[in-house]
Design goal:
With about 250 residues, this protein is α/β, with parallel strands linked by helices. Helices cover about 20% and strands about 25% of the residues. The protein contains five helices and 15 strands. Strand 12 and strand 13 (about 205-210) form a beta hairpin. Bound molecules: citrulline.
């Protein structure tokens, strides 16, 4: 059962963040509304919200997922792969430290939280433009005493591993076709090619949140017979962000 979430309000400079999306600049008012709707959705699913202020000079800082990994036993402060985002990790550390003992990744490791998918005691780590093998290795060393194994996975497309695979149940994964083999053994919901963005869903206390505008994925998820909530993520998507990126949940 998840009980807490840490989020950060998008700053006025959110349009200055990193992106490859080519969908235009986000509308700030709409971005704030979408963020607020997201936060209220988490709250309504039982999470107590810790909401941080925008971080001056760091337009991507509301993508808090990339800055820390939350486990029941400890938290890991990451070392984000984009140099422009690196200071975000130390900025969130004092807040995370109020909930968990901290471990830290150090140079030469780079790792974004968006590249880490934890399923039970397995941590799948995407090797991507942001996360390197040293990041996966350091994480494995930190997690080993707690009984987790780290499994590196080459990220096939998109920014992060969780751009292409997320959980929608204890052993249910929503994923793109390209990752089917890596995640053989799990029940799989494969998103259609043209709906690849919808592979990033958020499973919170038995409810699945998914982005608006992906009807074929929605129809497939209805087969899970779990409560579903559809959230408009249009402005977040313009900055290469998705549902999981916007919070740390634990
Ligand atoms: C970036 O490029 O770092 C941000 N504009 C988007 C980060 C999205 N984070 C995530 O998927 N976990």
């Amino acid at each position: 059962m998840l009980t807490q979430a840490i989020v950060r309000t998008p700053g006025l400079n959110a349009a200055d963040g990193l992106t490859t999306a080519e969908l235009g600049a986000p509308d700030h008012a709409r971005l704030l509304t979408q963020h607020e709707t997201y936060v209220r959705a988490l709250e309504s699913l039982g999470l107590k919200i810790t909401q941080l202020d925008p971080l001056p000079g760091h337009p991507d800082a509301y993508f808090v997922e990339d800055t820390a990994l939350m486990f029941p036993e400890l938290a890991v402060i990451t070392r984000p792969g984009a140099a422009a985002r690196r200071a975000e990790a130390e900025a969130i550390a004092p807040t995370v430290a109020t909930f968990r003992e901290l471990a830290r990744l150090t140079s030469p490791a780079t790792l974004d939280g968006g590249d880490v998918l934890v399923v039970g005691k397995k941590a799948f780590v995407g090797i991507s433009e942001r996360t390197n093998a040293a990041g996966a290795d350091q994480l494995a060393t930190i997690l080993k005493p707690h009984g987790y194994s780290v499994i590196p996975v080459t990220v096939p497309a998109g920014l992060h591993l969780k751009s292409s695979v997320t959980s929608a149940g204890d052993d249910v994964l929503v994923l793109t076709e390209s990752l089917r083999t890596e995640f053989a053994g799990y029940r799989q919901i494969v998103v259609p090619h043209e709906e690849a963005y919808a592979a990033n869903v958020l499973w919170i206390n038995g409810t699945v949140l998914l982005p608006d505008g992906f009807p074929r994925t929605l129809a497939k998820l209805e087969g899970l017979r779990l409560p579903l909530r559809v959230l408009d993520q249009s402005e977040v998507q313009k900055m290469d962000g998705a549902l999981t990126c916007l919070s740390l949940r634990f």
